[in-house]
């Protein structure tokens, strides 16, 4: 070996001063944990938890918090008990709006699943290995680009003299109203949210052992039986993880119904925005916000109780929504 | 100053798991010692305590006169070669090998020179600028070795370093590693679960089982004179005969059903105990009845039996012989496969007393 | 092989099924990219309400004269860069905090929930909450409120990306560095951070695009003086589509898509 045996003790020079202090601190794992999560938890508390909690505070005061009286009138305005008792559904506009939003969320979720299954089955099990990365990348890219722009792009497609109706007209078919309708909201939402189902479902399809499919085929199952008996049950967890995410995000959608939904496609988040934007009734808006958050957290809770692994969709990020 | 490594009464708990239980051994300076045992027996934990990644729950680790138990890994004159190699993927071969020298503020010229020197030693000269992922598994192994050797540690720790290589490469590397260790005279503490590897390379073997030391000794001692049933079964193949151990002033016997034969006395075994005796198959010679004329010496034990089965394995054959209720395997080199006995024929087996080792649990 | 299989083979049904899947996949891609293509087409359309499409770069040329749009684009880029830096630093620290330390069971779970709540609650609620919060503080709207809102919103995503890297990081790399004489600080600088670099860069790029494209939070906390591009685009779309909106949108799409491609390639799947 070489001659520099003074090094063979393997010692490094003893650190001193500030560095030494940092090193002793680094030895204490509790301290390390505290310095790494402490500032973040503080920031989240001040700038996330408090602002959201502020809405809860606003929702239970007549007007300015802590100055005016505590009240439940804002919640009563949402759920008018006399109207409930007399079954005057027409007198419950906010409940009806919430119900319509949840209905739209269900329809969007189902349509997203229907669209997601064939493409992910193809990508996960049939697509040539060489192209797979690229094909998946093509699904991810729109996911990370401005949903605002991608949504308003539907205006020239759906409008009365837009691309779709233009095509229908050219074929001699009657035109259909799409923009500013219920279906406008639905088409726009499916468009924005379908990648949230495709990506977790693709992950499930990909990890599905192809030999299971071959074994089922070998035992005499037809293609549709293979899908029904093997592929569908094994990939359902991935699909449901994405579906839950789509449902809760749709229930609170604002941009898409505002741009494409018109009156018949109006959704709950829009009426919340109105309270702050034009009606200047912050307290009522806050109460509606609390209700929306309760619905979202309730849906998540139910999903978790049903054994759906909601965390699965989380790791895929979620461009701008 | 001698710098023997002493592991002294070391115990390590992980929660309720006792991974290492009161382990003591000494590694003399410049020797090659192997910690051998099945997976989960505490080898890695022991090694990591020597390296400084784990602190013993009780016990001390000393190097010469220096107590290193509480020293940080980066303060100890030890270095570890990881099973995964742990080569830095974002650094070149040269930067990897020179890393330890850089940490010791060795000037870059000397660093380059020593890196080149050590790369020569591991037979990968001139690879300084290569990226790690351009190297094969065997080459990465050598680089990991070079990276540890270049800082001239007093003790080199190796945790199953050949585990990821294929059989042929592994055999070559075993020999090379041993040669390198002898050439450099560095103390090696080597961990493996492969008994053949341990026998091939070590000056001394420490056999661990369930966190405890079962037996330590040279490869020959371990193989030829196993002291416990675990060691006898773990190292090589063996015949185990169960019976009652009888120790008298004139010698020791094993009563084994209808037969009784002398064995080497074992001070750890109590007279009257039920235990096993191990006889290695190649120590059992076999004579066919027709040629039963060999002169028996005083220490020879002979028993009559019937050939049950003959298993031909190329250079050797294993002949299963039924003697009363028990079966004994005799192993012999095959010179001519037509010379092997036929199943069903009568035969006599023979071994000498020194080869019958009394085992304790 | 089963008889059904053989039959299907003979009738060519096999290829029909995968042809069906392939068609469905192609249609899905058309669905995903059609609208983006429409934006591109419209951005080069000369006639504003014309029935025939005619190529013209005039809207792009007009952009140069639209000081408001350029100003907003510049503001969005500035916000994006600040958010990217803050969010990535926080994410690296948080990822280590979450992955590396043995927390007493309850505290660890609590900080995990707190960090990931922003991923699940509706963003419009957070935007409104932040608006109310800053109004109460009398800070009003503008650059700082937008940056704070965006950091809270991007950093959980960034943390997920970095944490995935920390989880995958081979601990023995750091042990090897210490073994060779590097103290914990040097090890972190020389080995840990470089080995995590792909994840850190991906987290930074994702933070940037998320902030750059973010609309709802900005919508509530941006003020007269500082209007980020998405809010400006919203205004243009709501009022009456001005043709320049397509051109500026294409600019936005190109920026985000480029970043998304780079980031996705860096991220380990
Ligand atoms: N960090 C740890 N935490 C808890 N248990 C551990 C840890 N490291 C090792 N063990 C346990 O200690 C025992 C010995 O492990 P190890 O030293 O890795 O064995 P070997 O290297 O011989 O396979 C095993 O039961 C293992 O599960
Ligand atoms: Mg091990």
From TrEMBL, chain A:
InterPro entries: MetI-like, MetI-like_sf. Gene3D superfamilies: MetI-like (1.10.3720.10). It is a multi-pass membrane protein. Residues 98-303 form the ABC transmembrane type-1 domain. It is found in: Cell membrane. One of its GO terms (biological process) is transmembrane transport. Keywords: Cell membrane, Membrane, Transmembrane, Transmembrane helix, Transport. It holds the Pfam family BPD_transp_1. One of its GO terms (cellular component) is plasma membrane. The chain crosses the membrane at residues 40-61, 102-123, 135-155, 182-203, 230-260, 280-304. The keyword Secreted does not apply. Belongs to the binding-protein-dependent transport system permease family. CysTW subfamily. This is Spermidine/putrescine transport system permease protein.
Automatic annotation (TrEMBL), chain B:
Keywords: ATP-binding, Cell membrane, Membrane, Molybdenum, Nucleotide-binding, Translocase, Transport. SUPFAM superfamilies: MOP-like, P-loop containing nucleoside triphosphate hydrolases. The keyword ATP-binding applies. The keyword Plastid does not apply. Residues 5-235 form the ABC transporter domain. Its EC number is 7.3.2.6. One of its GO terms (molecular function) is ABC-type tungstate transporter activity. It comes from the Archaea. It is an enzyme of class 7 (translocase). It is a peripheral membrane protein. Gene3D superfamilies: 2.40.50.100, P-loop containing nucleotide triphosphate hydrolases (3.40.50.300). It is found in: Cell membrane. It catalyses: tungstate(in) + ATP + H2O = tungstate(out) + ADP + phosphate + H(+). InterPro entries: AAA+_ATPase, ABC_SmlMolc_Importer, ABC_transporter-like_ATP-bd, ABC_transporter-like_CS, Mo/tungstate-bd_C_term_dom, P-loop_NTPase, PotA-like, Transp-assoc_OB_typ2. GO terms for cellular component: ATP-binding cassette (ABC) transporter complex. Its main location: membrane. The complex is composed of two ATP-binding proteins (WtpC), two transmembrane proteins (WtpB) and a solute-binding protein (WtpA). Belongs to the ABC transporter superfamily. Sulfate/tungstate importer (TC 3.A.1.6) family. This is Molybdate/tungstate import ATP-binding protein WtpC. It comes from Halorubrum vacuolatum.
Automatic annotation (TrEMBL), chain C:
It is a multi-pass membrane protein. It holds the Pfam family BPD_transp_1. The chain crosses the membrane at residues 20-42, 73-98, 110-134, 146-167, 246-266. Residues 73-263 form the ABC transmembrane type-1 domain. GO terms for biological process: transmembrane transport. PROSITE patterns: ABC_TM1 (PS50928). It is found in: Cell membrane. It comes from the Archaea. One of its GO terms (cellular component) is plasma membrane. Keywords: Cell membrane, Membrane, Transmembrane, Transmembrane helix, Transport. PANTHER family: PUTRESCINE TRANSPORT SYSTEM PERMEASE PROTEIN POTI (PTHR43848). Belongs to the binding-protein-dependent transport system permease family. CysTW subfamily. This is Spermidine/putrescine transport system permease protein/putrescine transport system permease protein.
């Amino acid at each position: 070996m070489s001659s520099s045996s003074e090094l063979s003790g393997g010692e490094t020079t003893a650190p001193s001063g500030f560095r030494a202090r940092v090193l002793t601190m680094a030895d204490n794992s509790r301290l390390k944990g505290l310095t790494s999560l402490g500032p973040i938890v503080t920031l989240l508390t001040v700038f996330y938890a408090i602002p959201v909690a502020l809405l809860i505070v606003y929702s239970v005061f007549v007007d300015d918090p802590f100055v005016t009286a505590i009240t439940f009138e804002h919640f009563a305005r949402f759920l008018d008990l006399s109207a409930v008792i007399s079954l005057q559904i027409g007198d419950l506009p906010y409940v009806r709006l919430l119900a319509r939003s949840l209905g739209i969320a269900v329809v969007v979720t189902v349509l997203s699943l229907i669209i997601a299954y064939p493409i992910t089955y193809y990508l996960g099990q049939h697509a040539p290995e060489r192209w797979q990365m690229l094909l998946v990348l093509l699904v991810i890219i729109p996911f990370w680009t401005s949903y605002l722009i991608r949504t308003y792009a539907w205006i020239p497609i759906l409008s009365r003299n837009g691309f779709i109706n233009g095509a229908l007209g050219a074929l001699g078919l009657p035109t259909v109203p799409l923009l500013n309708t219920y279906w406008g909201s639905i088409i726009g939402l499916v468009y924005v949210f379908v990648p949230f189902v495709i990506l977790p479902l693709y992950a499930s399809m990909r990890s599905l052992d192809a030999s299971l499919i071959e074994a089922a085929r070998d035992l005499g199952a037809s293609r549709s039986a293979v899908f029904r008996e093997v592929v569908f049950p094994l990939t359902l967890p991935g699909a449901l993880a994405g579906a839950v995410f789509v449902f809760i995000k749709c229930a609170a959608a604002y941009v898409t119904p505002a741009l494409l939904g018109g009156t018949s496609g109006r959704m709950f988040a829009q009426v919340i925005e109105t309270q702050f934007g034009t009606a200047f009734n912050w307290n009522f808006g806050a109460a509606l916000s609390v209700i929306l958050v309760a619905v979202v957290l309730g849906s998540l809770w139910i999903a978790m109780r049903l054994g759906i692994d909601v965390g699965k969709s989380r790791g895929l990020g979620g461009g701008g929504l | 100053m001698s710098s023997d490594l002493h592991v002294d009464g070391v115990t390590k708990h992980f929660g309720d798991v006792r991974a290492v239980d009161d382990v003591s051994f000494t590694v003399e300076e410049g020797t090659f010692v192997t910690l051998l045992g099945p997976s989960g027996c505490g080898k890695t934990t022991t090694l990591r305590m020597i390296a400084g990644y784990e602190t013993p729950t009780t016990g001390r680790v000393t190097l010469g006169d220096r107590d290193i138990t509480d020293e940080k890994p980066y303060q100890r004159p030890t270095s570890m070669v990881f099973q995964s190699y742990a080569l830095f993927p974002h650094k070149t071969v040269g930067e990897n090998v020179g890393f330890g020298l850089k940490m010791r503020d060795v000037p870059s010229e000397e660093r380059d020179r020593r890196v080149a020197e050590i790369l020569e030693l591991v037979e990968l000269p001139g690879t300084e600028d290569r990226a790690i992922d351009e190297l094969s598994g065997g080459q990465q192994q050598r680089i990991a070795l070079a990276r540890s050797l270049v800082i001239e540690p007093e003790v080199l720790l190796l945790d199953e370093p050949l585990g990821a290589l294929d059989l042929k490469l592994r055999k070559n590397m075993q020999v090379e590693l041993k040669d390198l260790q002898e050439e450099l005279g560095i103390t090696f503490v080597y961990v493996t679960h492969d008994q053949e590897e341990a026998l091939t390379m070590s000056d001394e073997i420490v056999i661990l089982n369930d966190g405890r030391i079962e037996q330590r000794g040279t490869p020959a001692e371990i193989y030829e004179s196993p002291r416990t049933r675990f060691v006898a079964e773990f190292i090589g193949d063996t015949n185990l005969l169960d019976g009652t151990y009888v120790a008298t002033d004139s010698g020791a016997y094993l009563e084994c059903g209808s037969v009784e034969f002398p064995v080497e006395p074992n001070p750890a075994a109590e007279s009257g105990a039920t235990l096993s005796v191990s006889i290695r198959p190649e120590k059992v010679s076999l004579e066919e009845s027709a040629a039963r004329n060999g002169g028996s010496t005083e220490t020879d034990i002979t028993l009559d039996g019937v050939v049950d089965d003959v298993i031909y394995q190329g250079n050797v054959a294993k002949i299963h012989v039924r003697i009363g209720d028990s079966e004994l395997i005799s192993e012999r080199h095959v010179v001519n496969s037509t010379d092997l006995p036929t199943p069903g024929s009568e035969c006599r087996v023979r071994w000498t007393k020194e080869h019958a080792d009394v085992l304790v649990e | 092989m089963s008889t059904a299989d053989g039959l299907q083979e003979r009738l060519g049904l096999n290829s029909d099924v995968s042809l069906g899947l392939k068609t469905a996949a192609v249609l899905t891609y058309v669905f995903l990219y059609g609208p983006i293509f429409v934006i591109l087409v419209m951005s080069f359309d000369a006639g504003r309400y014309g029935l025939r499409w005619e190529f013209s770069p005039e809207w792009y040329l007009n952009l140069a004269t639209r000081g408001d749009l350029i100003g907003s684009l510049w503001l969005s880029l500035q916000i994006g860069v600040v958010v990217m830096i803050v969010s990535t630093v926080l994410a690296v620290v948080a990822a280590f905090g979450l992955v590396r330390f043995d927390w007493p069971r309850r505290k660890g779970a609590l900080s995990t929930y707190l960090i990931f709540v922003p991923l699940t609650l509706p963003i419009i609620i957070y935007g409104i909450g932040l608006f109310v919060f800053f109004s109460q503080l009398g800070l009003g709207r503008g650059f700082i409120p937008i940056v704070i809102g965006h950091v809270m919103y991007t950093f959980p995503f960034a943390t997920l990306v970095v944490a995935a890297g920390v989880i995958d990081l081979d601990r023995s790399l750091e042990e090897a560095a210490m073994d060779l004489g590097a103290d914990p600080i040097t090890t972190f600088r020389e080995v840990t951070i470089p080995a995590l670099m792909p994840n850190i860069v991906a987290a930074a790029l994702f933070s940037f695009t998320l902030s750059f494209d973010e609309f709802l939070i900005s919508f509530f906390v941006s003020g007269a003086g500082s209007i980020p591009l998405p809010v400006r685009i919203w205004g243009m779309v709501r009022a009456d589509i001005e043709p320049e909106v397509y051109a500026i949108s294409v600019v936005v799409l190109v920026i985000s898509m480029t970043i998304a491609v780079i980031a996705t390639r860096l991220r380990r799947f």
